[in-house]
Every structure is written in C-alpha cells, then in structure tokens.
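Morning. Coffee machine broken again, so started the prediction first thing and wrote up yesterday's gels while waiting. Chain of 290 residues, entered below exactly as on the submission form.
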Amino acid sequence: MNIKDFADRMKTVISDTLKKEVRIVNPLNSNGVHLYGLSIVEPNPNTSPVIYLESFFERFLDTDNWAGTVKDILEFYHNNRGEDSFDIKWFRNFNQIRENLFYRLINYEKNQELLSMVPHTRFLDLAKLYYADCKIGETAGSILIYHRHVKEWNITEDELITAAEENTPRLYPANLHPIFNTLGFDDDISLILKMPFPMFVLSNTGNQNGAAVVCYKDILERFSQKIEDDLVILPSSVHETMLLPLQKSNNIESLRKMVYDINHATLDQSQFLSDNVYLYSRKDRQLMIA
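Came back before lunch.
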C-alpha cells in the first residue's frame, strides 16, 4: 500500500464513522513534495480541519494495525477540531497582520513551482518565503503568503519583506549552542574550541525552520568575532545549520561530501535545504558558498 491508497481508504472510513464529508487534499510542500491530508467538512468552513497523513501512514507501516491507525486519526480529529472560527477579516487587513509576518528558508532550485506562486527573496542558492503567524483557538499555525495576498492588501512586495525582516528575529529568537550542550554568547568557549572538531548548532528557540537564523543581522559576525575565526556553515536541514571555525575545518570538500551523503541517505526530502557548504568571512562580513 502506498500513501495514495492509504489516503483513499482512510477517507472512506473516516467519512463513514463521522457521518461527514471528507475530502483528500494534496498541497505542494517544500522541495516539490506533495502532502496528503484529509479535510473534514464542517458547517463553518473556517473551522474545517485538515489532518495530514504522513506520520499516520508511517505508523501503520510499522505496526500493520489498521484499526489502531483509524483510532489515532479520529482521536487527533476530536482533539484538534477548531471550535473557534478563524477571523478571516484579520487576515485581509495588512495593518493587523504586519507584526505577524516572518520568513523561512528553502532551497531555490528545488522549489521553482512553489516560488512561481509566492513572493520570495533569493539568498545564495536559497530563497526566503514569507508567512503570517496565526492562531485558531488554542492552536498556533502559519499561513504562506501568495502573490494574490499582496495584491489584495494593495501593498508592494518591499513592504511585505521589510515587515518580515523586522519581525522574524523577534518572533523566532536565535539559539546558538555547542552540539552537545547549551551555551550563551557570554560563556567561556575556549575549552570547546580546543576540541578537534568543535561544532555549534544555530537555530531558533523553537528548533523549527531555524535555518533562517543565518540571515539574522550580526548573528554570524558576533560569533566569528567571539571565536576569532571565519566560519564554515553546514546546512543540516531547514530547521538548523551547523557552524565550525574555519581553522578546524580545512577540508571543505570532505565536509561537502558529508553534507551530501546525509542529505541523500537519511534526511527527509521535505526538510532538505542545500548540498552546498558556506563560508562566513569576518573581514568582509559576508556569507558565501564555499
């Protein structure tokens, strides 16, 4: 059974159980990956939940327990169905959502279909996408900004970008620490830097879509000045990057091969960021592809 067959069969079972109309949705995610979900049609369309099936499908493949998987999906539905409607008027008013706009990073070449539909900014071999934080009842989420939204708001893309650049570090603060423990900027890291391969994790405090932190103003400059070295940046995933002092990372080609092997052997395709390795120059205060 593949995930399409799983979705078709689950749609029928969930519809018969809930006595509601259920539709299969197949939205485009990052890196050309299409997700499979079930949309439960409610009387109020603003509260109709979508249940994405990938994790449930993987659990079913591991357990071969169909009844248990159905039970898990129904439990998820009952726990997450929106009792409070989403105020669509809020989203239509740019002045009301301006403080909620932020950006994420994705790979540029692998997302041409998606990028054709949304405002974006090229960043090396990556691209910034723009989102709005939102909340429905007690559930937090985000909405991807499309060209049609910018047109409806009667604003320029520059206004959208400016707002997101201002908000993202505030909404998703940076978190930089050694790979094996937490560390603040003011802590003594001399012992860590003496290690053969000192590696630091750069993400946001939520560890979700934290690769975008490499774009934050001064974050790389401050850290490179602190360790008195240029930086090598490895794109671990859309969620985080790894930082190494350049003096401890002389074999760039070996690191590039390591990144490629991990990306293509173990990383979920939807979380892929880049096969490249990056360098940050203290002198030039510039991030570049190695």
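The longest strand covers residues 126-136. Going to sketch it on the whiteboard this afternoon.
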